[in-house]
Design brief:
Layout: H1 3-20, E1 27-34, E2 39-45, H2 48-62, E3 69-77
Antiparallel strand pairs: 1-2, 1-3
Amino acid sequence: MNKYLRLTLTALAVTAATITSSGTALAWGCIAVSEEGSYGYSYNYDNQDDATERALGECAAKTTTESTCEITECTEGS
């Protein structure tokens, strides 16, 4: 995976989680990527497990069966 792409996707997830969360509640966001460059992300989830599941699901829907998606970043924003 291109280091620049990974950093860009991480910044996107952190920004999205920060912008979309409201009040004092903290929201989770994650990024999943595959070896072939497919990705999925999530934001504004109440817990890390749900955010992880969404990011992996989005990535899997965009990748081939020969490639595996992995979580590269999960953050809890305010």
